[in-house]
Amino acid sequence: MSNKLSKEDIKNLLPHREPMLLIDELLDIVNLKSAKAIVNVKKNSFYLQGHFPGQPVMPGVIIVEAFGQAAAALTAQGIDKSTYENKLVFLMSVEKARFRNPVVPDCKLELNIEAIRSHGRVWKYKGEAFVEGKKMADAQWSATIVDRK
Length: 149
Prior knowledge:
The protein is α+β, with helices and mostly antiparallel strands and 149 residues long. The chain is built from 3 helices and 6 strands. Strands 1-2-4-5-6-3 form a 6-stranded antiparallel sheet, covered by helices on one side.
């Protein structure tokens, strides 16, 4: 299994498409344990339009969504393909989310994510978001793998 996934590789694992596919790369993958995701925050990103005019900031809920996508890609690439076929990963809960510094356009947001535990189809994760080594946000969340209808 590769230690790096490109955006095209991620598209093969996740159902998300533009403009909602936020993850550009998944790096430093430790199978079913941890990875680093890269989100290139661009000034023309949809979530910056109107949030806030003259001083755009990446919304915290979008950072949480990026955490979730990174965790879903980590899990999908690590489990047996037949187990993941025709499945979706749904966010179940978000805990201890803290937004420490604003994420602004033209930066590379690095998400360090870790799978804490899994029980059947339910997984728990934690993550930290950084820009140039400065912590921007952190959270814990749970997700479940469900059948695609």
